[in-house]
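Teaching assistant here, posting this on the class forum so everyone can see the example we discussed in section. The complex has four components, and the goal was to see what a joint structure prediction looks like when all of them are supplied at once.
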Amino acid sequence: MRALSTTRVLLIVLAVAVVAAFLPFWFSGYILGLLTLAYYFGVFAMAWDLLFGFAGEVNFGPTFLIGTGAYTAGILDNLYQPPIAVCLVAGALAAVAGGVILALPALRVRGPYFGLTTLVAVLMLQNFIVVDASLTGGEIGLTVPDVISVSDATNYEIALWFMAASAAILFSLSRSPVGLILQASGQDAVQAGALGFNVTKHKLAAFIISAFFSGLAGGLLIFYLGSASVGTLVDITVGVQIIIAAVLGGRRTILGAVLGAVFLIAMSEALRPLGDLSNFVVSALALVVVLLFPSGLLGLLTRSRETV
Amino acid sequence: MADARLDVAGLTKRYGGLVAVKEMSLRVEAGKILGLIGPNGSGKSTVMKLIMGIERPDAGSVRVGGTDVAGWPSHKIARLGVGIVFQHSRPLHRQTVLENIKLALLPDRLTRLLADPETDARARAIAARVGLSEVADRYPSTLAFAHLRKIEIAKAIARDPQVLLIDEPFAGLTMTETSAFSDLICELRDDGRAVLLVDHNVKSVARMVDRVLAMYVGERIAEGTADEVMRDETVRRVYLGGSLETAARPESTFRDGTTPFLDVRNVGVQYGKAQALDGVSIHVHAGEFVSVVGLNGAGKTTLFNAISGLLPYSGEIRREGQPLRGRSAARIARDGIVQCSEGRDLFTGMSVRENLDLGGQHLPPADSGRQIEWLFGLFPILRERQRQAAGTLSGGEQQMLTIARALMMKPKLLILDEPTLGLAPVILEQISKALERLRQTTPISVLLGEQNVTFALPHADRVYVLEHARIVWEGEPERFAAEAGTGYL
Amino acid sequence: MRKGQNRAISAAFGASAAVLAIILASPVQAQTKAPIKIGVIAEAQAVAGSSIPQAAQLAAEELNAAGGVDGRKVEIVSYDNHSSAAESVRAFQRAANEDHVNAVIASYISEVVLALEPWTGRLKTVMVSPGAASDVITQNIAKDYSHLKYTFHGYLRSTSLAQQVCAAAKELLVDQLKMKSAVVVSEDAAWTTPLDAEYLKCLPTIGLHVLDHIRFSPDTTDFTPIFNKIEAQKPDVMITGISHVGVQPTVQWKQQQVPIPMLGISSQATNSSFWNDTNGATEGVLYQGVSGPDVAVTPKTLPFVAAFKKKFGNFPSYAGYTAYDEVFYIADAIKRAGSTDPDKLVVALEATDYVGTIGRVQFTGKDSPNPHALKVGPDTITGLMLQWQGGKQVNLWPAKVANGKLKFPKFIKVGAADR
Amino acid sequence: MLFWQILIDGFAISSLYALGAMGFALIFGVSGVLNLSHGALMVAAVVAAWAAGNDLHVGPYVGAALGVFVGFAASLITYFLIVRPLQQSRKIREEEREIFILTATLLWGIMIQELIAYLYTNNAKTVAPIVEGVVSLAGVRTPSNEIFTAVVCWLAIGLLWLLVNRTRAGKAVLAASMNPRGVTLLGVELSQVYIVIWAIYGVLAGIAGVLLGMFLGVSSYSVGPLTASAFSIVVLGGLGSVSGALIAAYVVGYLETLTAYLISPAYRTIPALLLLVIVIYVSPRGLLGRR
């Protein structure tokens, strides 16, 4: 992984994406639907990895950003039915605003305390959605009148290319000078400051970027599903699953996050015959990976040279 | 006057009631090196952090090239031309050495998605300058400790700072590495930079510095050339104490012969890449009082923690001939090797009595009561303070409680790590008396680690000097001043 | 029935449905024709939802034992939606695109059905809901008939439910016990909005003065403040609209000995296991139902209950009855349409006239303000008012199928004093 | 009247919160572990007590005891299976250990939750109460069970206090929560202290769970909210401070009750969350935090 240049990796991403673009010729709509979801969750996990792996901020509330984006887009569509693109942009912007709100305490408090504020942010959003049921659809969900497409293949291609583009942007960013500074700020803010970097500015930027992609993906997801609900987009457990996808795939790799998300989906699909127990088994498998292979799938594949 | 690159005046920093730095003033001109020395806790590192903007000063000015930067955020101070070399190196592990250097060359802009093409060449030039050329494309985790220190220097000089702050430049380096390192620092000075070196003692920086400023408990105590400072009476008293009276018992009087009570053989400890202990061998006989003197950072605490089973180590540590490796720290303590750690590790929310009871919890209640009575005799103040929470005691009382709590365990060997740290002379007197009584009236062996020689020598039967992770001298206390004293400053 | 909603993404990702194997001794000739596939999307972990696939399965087996539909076997494909709208959408897509089902029976949660409704039009797949109640489902059809005509509401609308509650309350409470005042208390959900509106309209007409109208979050766990607030207003009865919650308000009602009876919709109370779930606290609770275990609403009711109990070991939930009937009338419609073409199937379903376990099933016409809703009334479906008494569900209304008398636990003060 | 009502109801619910959160705080204080499977352990205890009554037909006392035992056993399993391997793993960097423990305990909680939903559905369960009926307190009709809940909570808190302050093992635990290194230097095996605190924690969570099951009832969906409430109480009280958790539990309990009575039950949790945000922002150490 390390030995490969950024351009090489981007070419590999492109190649994989092109191959994946042909999957609709072989796979059924159902499998495509699963992958569509996996790709969106991959984007969530990548955005999270940018914050945790690079900026060093333990964000337990990725769903705060996702939910803000998705619900803003969905509510807007419900109320005024502007073009979907307008809803998506509004959602992404709302998520960015959410990212800034989340970043404020992060720049003030450290470590577990920041993690707590993010958790509280999720709980607040959840409460707002549940209480304000007339606007948000409450506990069970918000249904949007418009969807991007009803064709599985079209939805799949949109998700795939959105994911590939996000991966390319986020990965390039992580490898760019800005990514380097971000990593330095995350690892040792004092030292980064002493090297002349405005740590606050860089971390804020990381929050904004992470929020932008989370919010946009959240919006796209609800216009794919046709509905949004606390249980699928906002709940803390959803956030944890995103974290698990990123940790499973390998932290600080950006691309590993997609791998983790696809792996989780493939796993739950493979375990479908177990019925109600499938969630149990998927959690157990993820737990085993966390316990035994902390460097994640990508770490396992590339045998990272980083040693403790 | 006008060409002082760094001009600090009246700098003050308080943490709550504690004054860490009091009205410090110092000046460094271009092309000069100022050594800022002081024992542990003297506030020298705080001064450095205040200059860099990592901490905010409560009062005073910090002028860099004429601009007062006191209270600025550190990235702005850095951009004004101040660089710092931290004592601990934390390079980015997933980036090569070159990339680590490039990082420091990057502009602080969010829009910079591609590095300037010349960045690479500049980074290579800096790597060559500090002697990292051969390893430029390797990962930090594969490098030796000295290389990691050089990465820090490389990062600090990447922006071509006019003022360079260096914290403990030689900590963890070998002799040859030290000399290569000081050559490098001298070259940086010859470029016309103002350099502030922060270290524990004069000796280590004497060869390079133009002037030395000595600090003690937040205040300046002396300033001048290295020689002047070394001859200064106040400095000598701070480092070496006054006249030394010793009352050593010859080693031959301890009758356990070839298997001493504690036998540390060729022990090494590594913290990451840094060698914290290197081939250290010491021994303590049953009933003997042994002092290990050394400056802060020499490795005393590491040695004691290895003995107490708190750290993994190489080599062998034996107690009465039996290896200690594999026993848990708690087991070692229960078996009678008890440490009073530097941080004291008291249960601050509990009363004095409760702390003592916890020390005696392995004893039958009757024994425990008797032991407490004995200790109240040794430290009468603790009897008065019985019901008070440990956290509310004064520093000296806390130290007495720490020792008393350890003695509640009826130890065979008592390890005392820097018991004098931050204590007033009156208190030292009391603790000193208690230790002497312990030595006279009990068969307990004591292993004392100190940088305060005045405190360490009077009771000692034998003394070791620990310097840069190695034992450099061993002998009777009366020989210390003549043979090891000067090197200690 | 769901709160906090801890949903594993793995679940969110896929309809992790267990496809129930349908292997029956089948006549050889039937296998030459492709089976009729009916998808069932339900909440397998919820009591009300778990009866849906079971009842559908039972119906399919009975149909197949009788030779199937024109020699075609009926096959049930079931999906667990984990009570989530998004997962239901996934399951619906899978059912339509992957498993090519001919019709879908989906969910007792209104929000789920509302989320699926646009997909019935998008994927041109017929869907019948066995248990959702919201009037919005059918109002939507009226607004966009050509697109949403594939949705059928196979359970009573909230408005109809409220009307039945009012009718029962008039006989049982006003006429018999001379009650005068009520407080409406409902959970905040899509289905209770029209329910409450109808309550507020019809209760005064039967002589119950509505003192207050309380809506609470389905997340509520501590009902003490709500009961206290109601009690302070001294109503004669609480008229309820609860489905997602059930056990907790009932248990706390008993524990705090709130002296006011509860009557209305309490979906969880329709389940036979409710007595155990509440440790008997449900004693005296009055709830509307479309059927009861010992109530012969139609000649088909009791045989169905017996067969269900024999096969699955418990009694069906209210959505079990409707799901059972739905399999039969979907099969019937396919037979009449002579095709599984969705548009022809819609026409055939609209003409449904089928006597099932809960009454006579007929759908309202496409010109009605609520197209594709169940018709209610003495000739079609009347509904029941039951009460938990000593661990049994006893029917009190309508009188002709009643099998018990109104009876309250001691702490309830009925008609007590001069309120 | 309303005043007494709020006072009594708030007291009962606060006592429950306190009991649930104290063990959580103890664990964090001694070992720095935030156990996010907390809610799952409590629900497991409730479901065990419920199932014992329904399936095994045992009396309420035996059922409750069984529930508490399940809480105790589940807690120790959590420690040995999940937490200890992660604490001792050398593959994980020190600064990342925290997120690994959080992730793993959360996964573990989800596993327990899914298993419960699978075996016993996600319907709410209530444990058959040990005492029934109502009594009148200051003119407020109060269920005896509510009083019982408060009494048992305070008995358990009192016992915990005695254990910690009056026994040698308890003293060692308390000392370890202040300074883990200090007790090692005094010859106390931290690994044994950990086992003791996880055992205490399990019993407390079990009792709190069973009481909650009798008082309000829980379902498998309660897992997340229960963890979150313990978490916010412990943060509000100051991470690791057991007495802080006790005080914070009453602050949160009364704030919730006041909101429920005076504003609306729907907004019940919101003021407490707002308070939490403010406290974290103004004083990240919480009301009585040490770290």
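For the discussion questions: Residues 4-240 of chain B form a domain with the Rossmann fold fold (CATH 3.40.50.300). The first helix of chain B runs from residue 44 to 52. Think about how each of these relates to the inputs above.
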